[in-house]
Design a protein that fits this description.
The structure is a homodimer. Chain A contains five helices and nine strands, in the order ββββαββαβαααββ. Chain A is α+β, with helices and mostly antiparallel strands. In chain A, the strands form two sheets. In chain A, strands 1, 2, 3, 4, 5, 6 and 7 form a seven-stranded mixed sheet that branches. Chain A is elongated.
């Protein structure tokens, strides 16, 4: 058995001005020192409980963000993706609202549109594209977009998040029915948000059991 | 960086008598020598092009089966899943019709019902359950079940495969519409199969471009 380099990489995604952004940062060491890339690092067999734990550790170290919604994406591997040798990267995607990134206020993190073809080292471009495609297709039939909506939100705000991800308008009645069906939100008693000329809109939040556990729809939006 | 053990494991699934079966075999070495387990093995950094290539190599070596439909499932990792040390297993699931397994006729392969709670070493039980759950949920909106149906099949036969996976009857009209929508089958000219009192049924096969590439439905069955 030859040595295989074992790493994790995290695609941290957020919505900003209705556009999907990925968090990138300048690498502080070789290979690709000073090049913008995904936050990533070695798995520590002497400390990490599993690859997910390594991904959470790396994300916290490199971006200051703790305990986001995080899901395994896929594992990328081969002799050529890393100049150091045959390597495996177990990749994850994490979703947070943009104010979580603002609050963490990490000087090295750069939010970049996922559609901007910034050149990335390793196979990080492929990893980002895989994450975006997974997020977009899963948004149709799950609570995934809620993790981009912030701690509290109104239903029109949540609908705009779904629409931004799916790239098309959604019928309001059908949207409300699907949200009710997923049964993952709770109204925050007495909390409303002014909505221009309309009457104030009820504020909602995710029920606590769905903060780390996705809710699925049997049929898509 | 400490050494991480890097392996692949394959969940080879087939349908037999309308029941979903997984291929298991007796391990020929420690740990768990002589215990029934999933086909798996080390990644060979000196020969494998990537983890997928390793999975195909291991599957061929251990079961005699080549080039099935194979998809990455998930990566399992941690210090306790393998007694040899901190390990990663990049897992795959493969789908074949039961006659492919019969033709390979490998003396060590044992087909076992996925619902039979045979005790398995490592975290192989969890890996099998993850594969079955992925297959069942993906069957609703993709061509995945076709890979269990054999080289050629009639539409009623294919419907029975979908029904066996989804565990419920499917409306014939809606099934035919979805199959037409996926546009992944071709009729084999002049080939029919006798169907009891009914008129002979047209035989179909997967169009060649879909032999390794899944076709998805926008809305599920």
């Amino acid at each position: 058995m030859n040595q295989v380099i074992c790493t994790v990489d995290v695609v941290l995604l957020t919505l900003q001005d209705d556009g999907l952004k990925v968090a990138l940062l300048k690498r502080d060491r070789e290979p690709f020192k000073d090049v913008i890339a995904l936050p990533g690092g070695y798995i520590h067999a002497d400390g990490d409980r599993d690859a997910r734990d390594a991904a959470l550790r790396v994300l916290k170290e490199k971006t200051g963000i703790e305990a986001p919604y995080l899901e395994q994406l896929a594992t990328f591997s081969g002799p050529a993706r890393d100049p150091r040798g045959w390597s495996i990267s177990v990749t994850y995607y994490a979703l947070v609202s943009s104010d979580v990134i603002e609050r963490a206020n990490h000087p090295d993190v750069k939010l970049t549109s996922v559609d901007r073809q910034v050149k990335l080292p390793f196979d990080h471009r492929l990893i980002v594209e895989t994450a975006v495609s997974r997020l977009r297709s899963k948004s149709q039939y799950s609570s995934l977009p809620c993790y981009l909506a912030g701690e509290t939100f109104t239903l029109p705000q949540l609908q705009r998040v779904y629409e931004a991800l799916m790239g098309e308008p959604i019928n309001k009645v059908s949207f409300r029915r699907k949200i009710t069906e997923m049964d993952m939100l709770e109204a925050i008693e007495g909390k409303f948000e002014a909505a221009g000329a309309h009457r104030p809109a009820q504020l909602y939040r995710l029920k606590s059991k769905f903060k780390q556990q996705l809710q699925l729809l049997e049929r898509g939006l």
